[in-house]
Write a structure and sequence with these properties.
Length: 99
C-alpha cells in the first residue's frame, strides 16, 4: 500500500472512530475508491488501524483503566472479608458497578 493511502486511511480512522458513525464503513468505502478492497493486505491494514486506535485509547486512559483494575480486586477482597459497604464507595468502585 502506498504511504499516502495509508496516511489518508489512518486519518479517516482517527476522525471517524469516536464519532457516532461507522469508522469501518468509511474505511471500506475509501478502500473501494482506492481499489484495494478484497485483498488480504487491506484486511490486515484495517485490523492494524483498529488496533492502533485501541492502543491510543489505552495510552490516554491508562490511569483510569489501571484504577478500575485495582479497584476490582479491592472490591472482591472487601466482599469476601465482609468490609463492603454501599455507602462508602469511591468513584472507581461506582464506575465498576455501572458496567
Amino acid at each position: 500500500m502506498e504511504i499516502l493511502k495509508a496516511i489518508l486511511l489512518g486519518f479517516i480512522q482517527g476522525v471517524t472512530e469516536f464519532l457516532p458513525i461507522s469508522s469501518s464503513g468509511h474505511l471500506s468505502v475509501f478502500q473501494h475508491f482506492f481499489g484495494t478492497v478484497g485483498s488480504d493486505s487491506s484486511l490486515l491494514f484495517t485490523v492494524l488501524l483498529h488496533m492502533g486506535t485501541l492502543l491510543a485509547v489505552f495510552f490516554v486512559y491508562y490511569k483510569t483503566i489501571w484504577g478500575l483494575i485495582v479497584e476490582a480486586f479491592r472490591l472482591i477482597k472487601d466482599i469476601f472479608t465482609g468490609k463492603f459497604k454501599w455507602k462508602e464507595m469511591n468513584e472507581n468502585r461506582r464506575m465498576l458497578f455501572m458496567f
